[in-house]
């Protein structure tokens, strides 16, 4: 059968790859285990040193490993601080710059450790039963605040007898009465909430500051060290009322909680200015739609005179940090698929400081990256190019004239290994005046006079963006001879609110036309074999792939990964039932089923003739396996050549583990290879 394509070849390649070859070789599966990537750099308070995480992947455990390194901003004194196969991260410098806090699971469960730089001594200061998060030193370094999950008694009704000693009975039933009872990547949720704690840096039992039965997050210190700010949703019907987190101030000495906001909408990242007069935060006034732009707000420290200061920027505001003078904030943002650092004055003026932030991803080229900054404007970030993984870069708002890259990981590796060249393009939409932004990855040793198969790879979200990021997943496809095209159709972020919000209540729609316009543009370059056009995408990209093959038969084969096929069933079965029908549709599905059906790829399945593979993780609770199974059944009933791949043990993020990334790409390219051969042989499906 045609479906038995090339997995035997895949596993033989995995088992025999070596680096003894003299000639440059193409980047391929096992090369993942040779890569080193930079993540989450933290610059010291004086701006002179940076601690960062170096990420690698272990071939024996199939896991990501993170260790800490330190380097001076002039590139000297570069050395490892931790080693081994237990992840270390969440670094926070002490205000004096002589020690730092980090989280590691070196001794089993995740604990807080303090590391003294002069002596190299480190010690655990906690014995926690759960992993700590959002860890921060107080301004004077005398306390550490963090959040931690606190379990609560599970709901239950009825009683059954206790089994006799030594008896083997079936496992206990799970009684559920919460609307959100499972979550992708976490599985079925334990009863409980994230609470706020403080602990002494000398160790001892942590003190729990909050008890209200809701999740507490976005914790930050006030400059006086006597208060912390946080966000929480305390509305009466909070489980069914998402996106309604408010900002609170908590006085440590009394435990008194004061609400600082009360208008409907998400409020995130409250940060008090160094002079104690203002609070900045991000959010928006909730309009109950799929996408709204995240704005930067400021208000007085007592919560009065709340106002937006980012109206003229027309981009989502990410991470925020006050400058020392309380006259502006350093912010992260993404513009046209490129993640950046900037400075926003209180009048809303934005100054760009650094560009091409990146993430240490194995998967697809989503825009984004991490950075840290001092109050005076010294910053460190993980930088990236379209053809190389992340490095460590530093710069300064004032003083240094340019951004400098301090690390050169993987240089030797890439001197002997070829990856595809990545080129940017823009094409005018055939629908209106929107321009569609995209990138083309050509295979190693590309010959523009040749004739290549094309893969259109579509991002998920749908409110997200691809960018010029190094993507092992897409490079693996290019290494097998495919021209890979990826784009940001309407609905993508980083191109202004109108572009992203176009698909609110209208998804899929003209985003399909944008994708076809991108394919037409690349075909017009003259090096594409139009008999070998292929299409794939995951999550929201899976939606658009299934939609496309219901609209056109131009593609030789398709792989629909982790899709939504039927919006009616999805909004009732995904991992956040209270959110999707409330924000992505105007009514509940039984109140207006036509609204759901007309936007569902299942409504177009009668048009599909394209050979189609479906691929989803069996533990995917975001776009559940039931969506894949529905489409597979429909394709079979239609007599369409189809196959289904179920990635065992995988959640929505299939590429999180190297071996699952290999499987994903091998199945996709194997399916396309088989139908590429059909095109060459002249056979019909």
**CATH H-tier superfamily of the domain at 418-565 and 600-680:** Alpha/Beta hydrolase fold, catalytic domain
CATH topology of the domain at 418-565 and 600-680: Rossmann fold
Spatial separation of the terminal alpha carbons = 12 Å
Largest sheet: 8 strands, mixed
Order of neighbouring strands in the sheet with most strands: 33-34-36-35-37-38-39-40
Salient structural properties:
globular, Rossmann fold, alpha+beta, single chain, 11 helices, 4-stranded antiparallel beta sheet, disordered N terminus, 685 residues
What does this structure look like?
This protein is α+β, with helices and mostly antiparallel strands and 685 residues long. It has a domain at 418-565 and 600-680: Alpha/Beta hydrolase fold, catalytic domain (Rossmann fold), CATH 3.40.50.1820. α3 packs parallel to α11 (658-681). It is globular.
Task: Describe this structure in a few short sentences.
By secondary structure, the chain is of the alpha+beta class. About 15% of the residues lie in helices and about 35% in strands.
Helix-strand blueprint:
Blueprint: H1 7-16, E1 25-26, E2 37-43, E3 49-58, E4 63-72, E5 79-80, E6 88-93, E7 99-104, E8 111-116, E9 122-124, E10 133-137, E11 144-151, E12 182-183, E13 187-188, E14 192-199, E15 207-208, E16 216-221, E17 227-232, E18 246-251, E19 257-259, E20 267-272, E21 278-283, E22 295-300, E23 307-308, E24 317-322, E25 328-335, E26 338-345, E27 350-357, E28 371-373, E29 378-385, E30 388-396, E31 404-405, H2 411-415, E32 417-418, E33 421-428, E34 435-442, E35 452-458, H3 472-479, E36 483-488, H4 497-501, H5 511-523, E37 528-538, H6 540-551, E38 557-561, H7 567-573, H8 577-584, H9 593-597, E39 612-617, H10 625-638, E40 642-647, H11 658-681
Parallel strand pairs: 1-32, 35-36, 35-37, 37-38, 38-39, 39-40
Antiparallel strand pairs: 2-3, 3-4, 4-5, 6-7, 7-8, 8-9, 10-11, 11-14, 12-13, 14-15, 16-17, 17-18, 18-19, 20-21, 21-22, 22-23, 24-25, 25-26, 26-27, 28-29, 29-30, 30-31, 33-34, 34-36
